[in-house]
Design brief:
Blueprint: E1 4-9, H1 13-25, E2 29-35, H2 39-49, E3 52-53, H3 57-62, E4 66-71, H4 78-87, E5 91-94, H5 102-115, E6 119-121, H6 129-140, E7 146-154, H7 174-177, H8 180-197, E8 201-209, E9 226-233, E10 238-244, E11 255-259, E12 262-266, E13 274-278, E14 283-286, H9 302-311, H10 320-334
Parallel strand pairs: 1-2, 1-4, 2-3, 4-5, 5-6, 7-10
Antiparallel strand pairs: 7-11, 8-9, 9-10, 11-12, 12-13, 13-14
Pfam families: GFO_IDH_MocA, GFO_IDH_MocA_C3
Protein name: Gfo/Idh/MocA family oxidoreductase
Domain Gfo/Idh/MocA-like oxidoreductase N-terminal: 4-123
Length: 335
């Protein structure tokens, strides 16, 4: 069996809970190499998951045994680290958003074109069984054409998820996060709508603000903690989308697709992750799998898909182009 060594840049929560355990569980991954500006963090993860530590990014980029790299750095450095890794001949899985601006994202795409290596972006909502089943139903046209949609993604905020469990989190800093909840949660659902409907959002009317979150000094955060938007796609579908860091109860990751002959409800019911209500009154319920939440970490399928694209030389399921298309919508949302 072919095996590869992988590197991970950044050793925060996304690495600890998603990338590192999923690489460790993948039979094609031989060794994980960790880098973080805080070397104690990388040492801790190397101890937890088995692997080794490098002290500099140059060491990781120059290591010819490392075939692929996960860029789990904060948003403002993706265009630097991912582009450099590609140009050094590494396949790259970049965390979302691909970059803080479309201009920076294009730098990564240009590096990918020059290098000829794989570039995948971690829009993990495409991989859930409920979303894949919903896409299958939509494509079958058993409910006719899609007319409208609504989608939501919200939880109690990144300070509960971050490695330090603190409101000093980089997610609240304009120069590092850039787009707040829009780039953290919103971009996932924008990519999902593009995927489910095989369409692209072209018109946006949105309101956003920092309503409740404060930083470590007790001041309102510099980025939005809530977004409410109205959207129109290239094919003329209309929809609404809400993203929030202030849902101070259970997480909401639901989507509803309204079609000519019925409704598809995704992640509304904890037992039946997909419910199809037909116009004639028939209801079909699918028990698939619980959505991954910050409190319920399960295998996303992203790492496995990335490794498979390398091993079998296939185009990644989420390309850099897909990620830029979603980022363009986020830029319109935050104005």
């Amino acid at each position: 069996m072919k095996q590869i060594n992988v590197g991970i840049i950044g050793c925060g929560s996304i690495t600890k809970f998603r990338h590192a355990p999923e690489y460790k569980a993948n039979p094609h991954v031989n060794e994980i190499v960790f880098f973080d500006r805080n070397i104690e963090r990388s040492k801790a993860l190397a101890n937890e998951f088995g692997g080794r530590v490098v002290e500099t990014l140059e060491e990781m980029f120059e290591d010819r045994t490392i075939v692929a790299i996960s860029d789990c750095s904060s948003n403002e450095t993706h265009h630097i680290h991912s582009a450099n890794a590609l140009l050094k001949g590494k396949h790259v899985l970049c965390e979302k958003p691909i970059a803080i601006t479309v201009e920076h994202a294009e730098e990564i795409l240009e590096a990918q074109r020059k290098s000829g290596k794989k570039l995948m972006v971690d829009h993990n909502q495409r991989f859930t069984r409920a979303h894949q089943k919903a896409k299958e139903i939509i494509e079958s046209k058993e409910l006719g054409e899609v007319l409208t949609f609504k989608t939501s993604f919200g939880h109690q905020g990144p300070e509960r998820w971050g490695v330090n469990k603190s409101n000093a989190t980089w997610f609240f800093k304009k120069e590092r996060s850039h787009s707040g909840v829009a780039g953290d949660l919103g971009i996932h659902k924008i990519d999902l709508i593009h995927y489910l409907l095989d369409d692209e959002i072209v018109d946006v009317h949105a309101f956003h603000g920092a309503f409740d979150k404060v930083n470590e000094n007790g001041e309102p955060i510099e980025v939005c903690d809530n977004v409410v938007s109205a959207l129109r796609t290239k094919k003329g579908r209309l929809g609404t989308a809400s993203f929030s860091w202030t849902y101070y109860g259970s997480e909401d990751n639901s989507t509803t697709i309204y079609c000519q002959k019925g409704i598809i409800k995704i992640y509304h019911d904890p037992t039946y992750q997909l419910v199809v209500e037909h116009k004639n009154g028939e209801v079909v319920k699918y028990e698939l799998e619980a959505i991954q939440t910050n409190d319920n970490q399960t295998n996303t399928g992203v790492i496995d898909a990335f490794v498979e694209s390398i091993i079998h030389d296939k185009e990644p399921i989420v390309t850099g182009k897909d990620a830029v298309t979603a980022l363009k919508v986020i830029e319109k949302i935050i104005g």
